[in-house]
Amino acid sequence: MITNVPLLIENFRAARDTLRANPTLLDESIAKLSTATQEPAKKFRDLMLSSEEDVAKIYDASQAIMEDLPGKVIEELEAYKMEVARIFGLTEDSF
How far apart (Å, rounded) are the C-alpha atoms in residues 42 and 66? Predict the structure, then answer.
């Protein structure tokens, strides 16, 4: 559960800046995911790389990515979220 929205936004923006400086940073970790999970993971990466600044629109877009995904893909994405956090140097209480 998200308890600190300002911190979440700050960490998202910092991670986004890091990814924009190195757009291939997540490619290796995405390649390790199942084929079915790679597509939504790439969509999340592309969303982070986008120029969209409106937090509500980013949230809506992330929800749209998750729509209709099989349970196994959602589970793998949830686990992958922790890997992405580690890559960006974030801890679980950072989001």
Answer: 12
The tokens for 10 are 């700050």
- What would the pLDDT profile of 63-92 be if each residue is shown by its tens digit? 999 999 999 999 999 999 999 999 998 876
pTM: predicted TM-score of the whole model, two decimal places = 0.86
Q: Which residues contact 34 (CB under 8 A, 6 or more apart)?
A: 72, 73, 76
Going 66 to 43 to 61 to 12, the CA torsion angle's sign is: positive
Which residues neighbour 7 within 8 Å (Cβ) at sequence distance 6 or greater?
A: 94
Number of domains within the chain: 1
Question: Which domain range does residue 53 map to?
Answer: 5-94
Find the farthest-apart pair of alpha carbons in the chain and give their distance in angstroms, rounded. 34
As a dihedral over the C-alpha atoms of residue 46, residue 52, residue 53, residue 58, rounded to 10 degrees, the angle is -60
Residue 3 token pair: 């308890």
